Amino acid sequence: MAGKAKPGKRKSEATGRRPATARSPAETAPPWPAADRRATSKERRRQAILTAALDVFSERGFASARLDDVAAAAGVAKGTLYLYFPDKEALFQALVRSAAESVATEIAEIPDRRHLSYDEALARIFAVFRRDILGTRRKHVLRLLLAEGGRFPALAEFYWREILTKAMPVLAALAHEAVRRGEIASDAAARFPQLIMSPLIMTVIWDGLFSRFAPLDVDGLIEAHRELLLGRRPGGQP
Using alpha carbons only, what angle is made at residue 145 by residues 74 and 102, rounded to the nearest 5 degrees? Predict the structure, then answer.
């Protein structure tokens, strides 16, 4: 009968379609194992929730922010959000941890970098803070913590426990070692390690409150702060 393909002919020839080109197993395999794809998808969803939370918290503050709004902004169901964060406080804590992580890591690794001078160690810490906090939206997390910590002591306690109690002793030891080596004359930063980071925190406050009136030269301030900590005169002279 007309229209039937001849015996031995492939169906693609009978229909006029070109046969599909055979692909190697490497070409047809997924780009990563299924378990890795699930983990990657889960991490992307978690990051989307954190990004949305930063928007909502920044706009409304911790007290007025609702998890429903965070879920909607992230494009997930509220039940999905709860799979990652059991409550609003846990979500905010995750924001704080993610914002401070790189700076906290840089400080934590100082004891393993004894070959660095005091100046070099400070430069590394300040560069990470400048790049990862002052230069990004993460500064809003710190600003929120400063604004809301008094009304929500658990948030301040979390930052104290997770960040400050680990960073302050290391910074104090760094300054003490600089005195011992003769790199600096004053032990003020060893006695009060808050002096090392306080001006950087101040830049976050200034940016949020006063930058529209008097923009701050952040890089210039950081360099001036290093000169003070090192006991240098302008131009780098001791």
Answer: 75
pLDDT in tens, 144-158: 999 899 999 999 999
Interhelix angle 118-129/218-230, nearest 10 degrees = 160
What is the Cα–Cα distance from 171 to 190, expressed in whole angstroms?
7
End-to-end CA distance of the chain: 102
Task: Using CB atoms within 10 Å of the CB of residue 30, give its burial: 0 to 12 exposed, 13 to 18 middle, 19+ buried.
Answer: exposed
Angle at 65 between CA 64 and CA 68, to 5 degrees: 130
Nearest to 171 by CA among 119, 107, 106: 107
Sign of the dihedral defined by the CA atoms of residues 92, 63, 144, 161, in that order:
negative
At 172-215, the pLDDT tens digits run 999 999 999 999 999 999 999 999 999 999 999 999 999 999 99
